[in-house]
Amino acid sequence: MFNPNAKQINLFKLVLFIAALGPLARLVLFGFADKLGANPIEFITRNTGDWTLYFLCLTLSVTPLRRISGWNWLIKLRRMLGLFAFFYATLHFTTFLWFDHFFDIDEMLKDVVKRPFITVGFTAFVLLIPLAVTSTNAMVRRLGGKRWQLLHRLVYVIASLGILHFWWMKAGKNDFAEPILFGTIVAVLLLSRVYWSVLKPKMQKRQTSPAPT
Amino acid sequence: QKLAARPNPGFVVMDKPTAFKDATTYNNFYEFGTDKTDPAQNAGSLKPRPWTVAIEGEVKKPMTVDLDGLLKLAPLEERIYRLRCVEGWSMVIPWIGYSLSELIKKVEPTGNAKYVEFITLADKKQMPGLRSPVLEWPYVEGLRLDEANHPLTLLTLGMYGEVLPNQNGAPVRIVVPWKYGFKSAKSLVKIRFTKDQPRTAWNISAPQEYGFFSNVNPEVDHPRWSQATERRIGEDGFFSRKRKTLMFNGYSDVASLYTGMDLKKFF
């Protein structure tokens, strides 16, 4: 089985880091080349929102991939994926706060309270903050593995809220193809966890227990 | 293709016209896809000639008129109108056309005619977006007869000194500047005068979000966003705040059409 050494892992991390900055680099380049279209702010908002969702999906796919492939080293890339989800979410939120509201926090909060579509997106963003803050090794030690894991299960809630936010946004276009696609991906990623943690142990138990005589 | 028209100073706003490039690459025309850039990319398959429009229903003189007939029906005027999209952005467009009332006069509506229904082309061969069921096709819009007869309501055949680009609703569309953009149906094939209020595409799809009237109104929010402000394409954004949306998109003359109506209820 493929099992990279520490040096190779570091190389993967470097490549991943550079690749994950690609979408931001593209936005900056497009900005300078005047290629963001007639409504650049909408373009940036959509694009950073999309990439938040992609990185959330990538982060959530690490565990299932490990289970299927046996590549346990993949776990070493997960923190970076998660932090990039937070990074693009922060850009997404900042675009909204800056260009939609010009840092008028009062107006922004009014929008958050009044509009479920924004409430949900904002909640997902706020919930990401403690996960980003506690992503360091030191924080894992301080919290203790169990408690850290419990806290980081929030990502299931965050991903679901993210999908709902995307769904409501697309509802305006009456076009659900993409929300359905990403909803399905997230559902499969979450359900695979249910399978491994609940159903599989049960089935194994059934198989290994001796037949009644 | 150039289209000559006489500027009508009575119908010109002082705002700076939107760049032609923006007005022709940032469109909602779901028959060609739901992304703003889709119409510019996909509308090449639309054939704006030959073209006919059938005018029927509650009229004394129904007729089918071709494009040349429409171009000659009344003198072409250039009018610069604000366009406010229900999504919260706006443009300023120099349209070419004439008041729809010119055409209405010719067909002589009967006493039964209370509404005008605009029916858009729905041809799978020319319009790839029809494959997706985002709306009920054909796209249908409608106005009350007095709204349709208001001089601002423009039967539109061109913009920026040219015939309408395909993505902007070639070869003939309606422009109703005090209503959200989706009321201004594109690529018309039929205009029908009716007794009853027409069922309109967005109202069928999401009645709680899009009313029949859909007048621009900063005080009536869309359920998912505020309508109090708008972003003028090409002007508002990185360095300036969004601008305040004006009642009836600034066309306050039309207020008399709605005397006594609760515009929160009839949104």
From TrEMBL, chain A:
HAMAP family of this UniProt entry? MsrQ
Start and end residues of each Ferric oxidoreductase domain? 51-162
What organism is recorded for this protein? Noviherbaspirillum saxi
Q: What is this protein called?
A: Protein-methionine-sulfoxide reductase heme-binding subunit MsrQ
Q: What is written in the cofactor note of this entry?
A: Binds 1 heme b (iron(II)-protoporphyrin IX) group per subunit. Binds 1 FMN per subunit.
Q: Which InterPro entries match?
A: Fe3_Rdtase_TM_dom, MsrQ-like
Assembly, in brief, is: Heterodimer of a catalytic subunit (MsrP) and a heme-binding subunit (MsrQ).
Q: Which Pfam families match?
A: Ferric_reduct
Q: Which GO terms describe its molecular function?
A: electron transfer activity; FMN binding; heme binding; metal ion binding; oxidoreductase activity, acting on diphenols and related substances as donors
Q: Which family does it belong to?
A: Belongs to the MsrQ family.
Q: Which UniProt keywords apply?
A: Cell membrane, Electron transport, Flavoprotein, FMN, Heme, Iron, Membrane, Metal-binding, Transmembrane, Transmembrane helix, Transport
